[in-house]
Each structure stands twice: as C-alpha cells, then as structure tokens.
Amino acid sequence: MGYLFPISAGFFSGYLLKILINWIDIDNYKINNNNFMFEIICPIPWVWSFLNLPLFDAIIFSVITVALIGISFVDFHTMQIPLIFVILGAISVLIAIFKKSIYLSSAAYGIFVGAIIPLMIMGLMWLITKRQGMGFGDIQMGFVLGAWLGPMRMAITLFFASVLSLIVWIAVSLVHGFDKNRAIPMGPFLSVAGTGVYVGSFYYPELFYLLII
C-alpha cells in the first residue's frame, strides 16, 4: 500500500478535524483555514500504523489518535473536551470489540481503571476538599482510552499523564508564579501518554506482558 494512502488519509482527516473544530466552535476557538498544522500532524499516526499494524488495527489506531489530537488542542485552549471526539473514539472502540480486535474483558477492566476509579477518586476529593481534581470530560476520555488500551496500559497512561501534567504545572508556576488554584487541562497529557504507551507496548511488548487477560 506504500505511503500514498496513509499520507492522503492523514491529510484528509486533519482537514476534516479542522472543519469539525471550527464547526463546534467551543468558546470561539477556531483554526484559520490557512493553518495547516492538522494536515501536517495527522498523517504521522496514519503512516506509522499502516507500516506497523494490521490494516484494521491501523485504521482504529489512526481514527482514535486523530480524535485525541482534536481533544488535545481544544482542551488546551478552552479547558473543555468536545463530546463529539469522545463519541468518535467510543464508536471506534465498539467496532474493534465487535471485530474482536479488542477483547471485551480487556475493555471492561480498562474502563474500570480509566474511568470508574478516577471517578471514585474525584468524588472522594470533592467530599474532602470541595475541589474537583478532574473534569467529567477527562472521565469520558478515560472511558475510551481504558477500553482501547486495556487495564495495565491504562494504569500506566494515568501515571505518565499525571507526571507530565505535574511537570508542566511546576514549569508554568516557575514562570508565572505559584497558584494552587491554577488549572491544567488533562486532555493533552492523557492523549500523549495514551498514544505513547500504545506505541511503546508495540516496540517493547515484554514490558507489557501483564496486559494479557
């Protein structure tokens, strides 16, 4: 199949992503039509997956990753996670489960790790501190990522996302001053960590042997 199809599919998906973000218009966040960053970024997961994964898995990986790219940019600029991208990811996971590319048991345990446990922690934090550590959009992301990645990879994703967000929070605080109420969007960190863990498990499967259920 070579590079032509994944590059073309990635470019087209990036173009559609830009149109979709401008259409949902969250907090007036829009991307200029002359800005081609999505058309440049989105072919990367398409090319990697088509070179390394079976065709069906490559498509699922690419669609979910493109949705995560959209979530990352919108959440970074607006502190909101668009539901439409969560739905796109959820549909992709459901199709993968139906095609038995993802085991139902793995998806269920992954959802428990990625969404149920964080939701319980969020509720407990609210009862104790009256602060909401994560947003419901992050929980929705955890639902999709957990079903896609499975329990162990989702747990590792949460760990790395937390570490990355903490590093960024400290860096921002060093520049702009410490503010305990400063909020950091988790969407970009969950996206980067989840995609990185998926790719890492491909290259170093021996480190992820506990994923087999």
Give a structural overview:
The chain is an all-alpha fold. It has one domain. 75% of the residues lie in helices and 0% in strands. It has nine helices and no strands. It has helices at residues 4-24, 37-41, 43-52, 55-78, 83-98, 104-129, 136-149, 151-176, 187-203. Helix 1 (4-24) runs antiparallel to helix 3 (43-52), helix 1 (4-24) packs parallel to helix 4 and helix 8 packs across helix 9 (187-203). The chain is globular. The model has no long low-confidence stretch (mean pLDDT 89).
Topology:
Blueprint: H1 4-24, H2 37-41, H3 43-52, H4 55-78, H5 83-98, H6 104-129, H7 136-149, H8 151-176, H9 187-203
Helix pairs in contact: 1-3, 1-4, 3-4, 4-5, 4-9, 5-7, 6-7, 6-8, 7-8, 7-9, 8-9
Question: TL;DR?
Answer:
With 213 residues, the protein is mostly helical. The protein has helices at residues 4-24, 37-41, 43-52, 55-78, 83-98, 104-129, 136-149, 151-176, 187-203. Helix 3 runs antiparallel to helix 4 (55-78), helix 4 (55-78) packs antiparallel against helix 9 and helix 8 (151-176) packs across helix 9.
The number of helical segments is 9
Please identify the structural class as seen in this structure: mainly alpha
Stretches where pLDDT is under 50 for at least 5 consecutive residues are none
In N-to-C order, the SSE pattern is HHHHHHHHH
Q: Rg from C-alpha positions?
A: 17 Å
Total number of β-strand segments?
A: 0
Quote the average pLDDT: 89
Distance between the termini: 33 Å
CA-based shape: globular
> How much helix, percentage-wise, in residues?
over 70%
Major pleated sheet: none
Tell me the strand percentage band.
under 5%
**How many domain units?**
1
